[in-house]
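Ticket #4471: structure export looks truncated?
Reporter: QA, pipeline team
Priority: medium

Steps to reproduce: submit the single chain below to the structure queue and open the exported record.
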Amino acid sequence: MRGLRFRRQRPIGPYVVDFLCSRARLVVELDGDQHGADQAMRYDAVRTEWLRQQGYSVLRFANGAVLRNRQMVIDAILHHLEEHDIPLPGNAAGISDPPPKGGWQRGGEMQRFHVKRH
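Actual output as written to the record:
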C-alpha cells in the first residue's frame, strides 16, 4: 500500500510502543486515564526521553481525543511529518496497518485509520 506504514505494538529496546513508523522514526502513543497519575507520568517521561535518545520522535494523544476527533490526531501527525521534512511517498500518507483486533469501532462499522496528504 502507498504511504507511510504505522505498525501497532512494536518493541523498541525495553519498551513496546503503541504505533511505530520506522521510516519516519516516529512513535505515536495513545494514553488512557492511567497516564495522568504521577507515577505513570514519570514513567512516560523516562520512556519518552529514552526513545528520543534513540532517535525517535514521540507524539502522545489521549485515548479520548482519538475517539472524539480522529482527524485532529491525523492532522497533528501530518504536521509533525511535514515540520520535520519527512517525505511522504506518493500523494498519500496512509496509516495502513490493520486496525486493532475488532477494528476501529464507530457506530458498528469498522473504520480504517487512513489519511491523505492535502
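Status: closed, not a bug. The export was complete when the record was re-opened. Leaving a note from the reviewer for reference: Confidence is low (pLDDT under 50) at residues 91-100, 102-118.
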